[in-house]
Amino acid sequence: MAIANGTPFNDALLAYRLELPRPQRPLTEDTQALLHDYHPDYASDSRVPLQIGVNRNDPCHPQLAALLQSDSQSNEQLFEGAAHIETDVLVIGAGGAGCSAALIAAQHNTKVLIATKTRVGDSNTVMAEGGIQASINANDTPQAHFEETLKAGHHAGNKRLVEQMVLDGPDVIRWLIKQGMQFDLDAQGDLATRRAGGTSADRVLYYRDYTGLEMMRVLREAIRNHPQINTADNSPAVELLTNDAGHCRGALLYSIDRQQYTVVKAKSVILASGGLGRMHLNGFPTSNHVGATGDGLVLAYRLGAKLQTLDSFQYHPTGLAWPQTLAGTLITEGIRSAGAQLINSAGERFIDELAPRDVVSAAIIRECREGRGIQLESGRQGVWLDTPALEQRQPGMLAQRFPKFLSLCDKAGIEPHRTPLFICPTLHYQNGGVVINEHCETTVPGLYCAGEVSGGIHGRNRIMGNALLEIISFGRRAGAAAAAYQPTAGSELSLAHLQRFRREIENSGLVSDKTGPLLFPHYAHFNRSTA
Amino acid sequence: MTQTATPEPCASITVNGTARSVASGHSLIQALWKSGDPLFKRASCLEGVCGSCRIMVRYAGESEVKTALACQTLVETGMQVVFPQHLEAQSAALQTHRYQLQSSTPVDQQLRDIFPQAIDCRHCHGCTVACPKGIDVEKGITLANQNRLTEAGDLFVNCVMCDLCVTSCPEDIAPNYVALFARRSVTFNQPLPNNLAGRLQVLQRGELKIKY
């Protein structure tokens, strides 16, 4: 599709007037058509059938497909030469899901090792701004939370998982408070709430726009203080390991610090390794942390775990598009929830800002494609987030509620009470992932999953606040189930699953020099042999 | 803020003692990436909230060494930058601070037990100067020593646990961990907010089941 030119950035900035009215373009009634025409997931080149593995013939984003079907750098020699350690439960990933899983697993005298590619807490969780959903207000019900989660996900979510998550909500908040996590309170001392796009009730709890930071601070400290939990920083998992029955019994870790491999033998493994924004699907910028490279999907798929919804990703509507150095940085939906509007180059509103995220993103892309966007010299297009008008209606709102946002503006040299923010959609979240059941079991015995790496909860689109709820709800469940699991078959570890997978690669003519997992984006210049 | 065309001019900087020429107009992390530097251990969120990319920096013509986060710092010709290693986890200060929030000991006594060094604060301002988030860290320790834990904790809303205050403290106080203990224990010991407590009771009675 031809893309019309937008109004040059500097011209649009000069034309912006706080005092002018904001005319409303006709509201889009057919959101399906809007998504179909403009959302990246719906483009004809956005999916290919997988050729090997459990999900053969299932649709998958082409960049992810190439990675899932890539070879491993692991081999027998490397496996034989590795040091060996043992634990009861191995947790891979140390964001919110991994940390809550570890804390629950360790409750009953279980020895837990939590291994992370970076440091405990370096994750997408720590960056989460919007908040966490839990139905706690008298005018709201878990039923409404349930229905709105499914509806926003285009009814592709697993009802049983969604039911569990929404019913867990209030107890998840209680548990977090008992870890020492603070939430903003209203004048009556109740937990303050705000509304997420695509929902009918104020159900998002938050701590300023630092909800993820506050959560991660306390979980990291709880992990550090737990006598049963050991941590391995800078130690990405590069392969999962099986016993002779094909059950998951450990992983091969690579120590970036020591440039050595370690075989971790465990009774069970929890994969909580997060998403893949740093794959920059379709060339989009991303809001994700540097380590979000889809490693967990690659490891689980090789092992034979079934995946789902591999062709659906969330492009968050409001990524900062200017200045270029900060492109992709997220601007929280909380600001739209507080009343900030989106306007095009003509100063018109063009969408209900609190429609589901996929719809808002598609509408922004439509404005740009049809010539009503604003354009940088680089060609990147976007629209305005009208923060000056918000601040005019509610003076002091930004300083009171959004300190992280103001610090971002400060760094960007933007005065958000005078100048609108130039935004465009940014790759934010992997909607699908490893198939799990209500106990976070995957299709491979001994392997559990929680958090963004798992699929089935958000369907094909996620609403604000459900990610933080999901990671704690299912993190705790995974921790409990993995600690209770008693392996039945043998404990001799091997890379046998890799041999099978390699045969499949060869038989289907997919041989290439591409290897996975990626571990880091190419521009970070990581290389395992010289790290 | 107007958009200006940038033909990628270069900045001459020093990183960990090595002279470098990097693309200007970028954050330090981005500039080093563009120059082909392997940089993955000391960069994570790129939004200034994870604390992994902390640096010490001296700008051209200045004598003072400042602290900052590399993802939040634009490159400037003449700047000298050091990425200090994160060694605090192995430091005596952190190894000895171990606690559980659930305790029969009163909170202020708990604080003395866990962080016995806090009372030795010599008010050198090192921690406050070191904080890249502009937190008055030393005041937090003073307040904690006066058992004013809520006020102490409230000063640390913006803390990203970069541990630069730990590095700078001559008394091994680990100030950010004192503040985090204050925040956590105050929260832990408060009654649950009413709307949450009410909903938990209703759920415990088995009401509000989900209908498909």
Report on this structure:
The complex is a heterodimer of chains A (531) and B (212). Helix content of chain A is 31%, strand content 18%. Chain A has 531 residues and is α/β, with parallel strands linked by helices. In chain A, helix 5 (96-105) packs parallel to helix 15. The radius of gyration of chain A is 23 Å and the shape is globular. With 212 residues, chain B is of the alpha+beta class. Chain B folds into 2 domains: 10-82, Beta-grasp domain (Ubiquitin-like (UB roll)), CATH 3.10.20; 88-189, no CATH class. In chain B, 33% of the residues lie in helices and 11% in strands. Chain B is built from 9 helices and 5 strands, in the order ββαβββαααααααα. Chain B has helices spanning 28-34, 92-96, 107-114, 126-130, 137-145, 149-154, 164-168, 175-189, 194-204, and strands at 10-15, 18-23, 54-58, 66-69, 80-82. Chain B has a 5-stranded mixed beta sheet with strand order 2-1-5-3-4, covered by helices on one side. The mean pLDDT of chain B is 92. The chains are: A alpha/beta (531), B alpha+beta (212). The interface between A and B is large, with 81 and 60 residues.
CATH architecture of the domain at 72-121 and 213-312 and 432-484 in chain A: 3-Layer(bba) Sandwich
Write down the overall mean pLDDT of chain B.
92
| The CATH fourth-level homologous superfamily of the domain at 72-121 and 213-312 and 432-484 in chain A | FAD/NAD(P)-binding domain
CATH topology of the domain at 72-121 and 213-312 and 432-484 in chain A: FAD/NAD(P)-binding domain
Oligomer: heterodimer
Query: How is the main sheet of chain A built?
Result: 6 strands, mixed
Question: How many strand units of chain A?
Answer: 25
Structural category of chain A: alpha/beta
Low-confidence stretches of chain A: none
Span of the ends, CA to CA of chain B? 52 Å
Helix and strand run of chain B: EEHEEEHHHHHHHH
| Cα-based radius of gyration of chain B, to the nearest Å | 22 Å
Instruction: Name the chain pair with the biggest interface and residue counts per chain.
Output: A-B, 81 and 60 residues
What is the overall number of helices of chain B? 9
Mean pLDDT across all amino acids of chain A: 94
**Given the helix and strand composition of chain B, which structural class is it?**
alpha+beta
Portion in helices of chain A: 25-40%
Q: Which strand order spans the largest sheet of chain B, edge to edge or round the barrel?
A: 2-1-5-3-4
Low-confidence regions of chain B: none
> How many domains comprise the coordinates of chain B?
2
The largest β sheet of chain B comes out as: 5 strands, mixed
